[in-house]
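User: I'll paste a sequence; please echo it back and then give the predicted structure.

Assistant: Echoing your sequence first, then the prediction.
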Amino acid sequence: MLETGAGTGIVTRRLRDLLPATTRLIATDLNPADAMALPFADASFDAVVCQFSAQFFPEKEKSYREAYRVTP
């Protein structure tokens, strides 16, 4: 599972608590994992979540295409 724009980490912690312990959870915010150019291979995540920060993505369509690219 990939979370883009984790911010305060509220959703990250909730996901960590609810998902199976074997789930790989990666949370990004202001770091090298830019939502418009995700540094992950195609189809490398089962899901992408974003609670709040999508409104701040400079190029929303590009960010959504990236989320689509990294999911099967």
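The CA atoms of residues 6 and 12 lie 7 Å apart. The radius of gyration is 12 Å.
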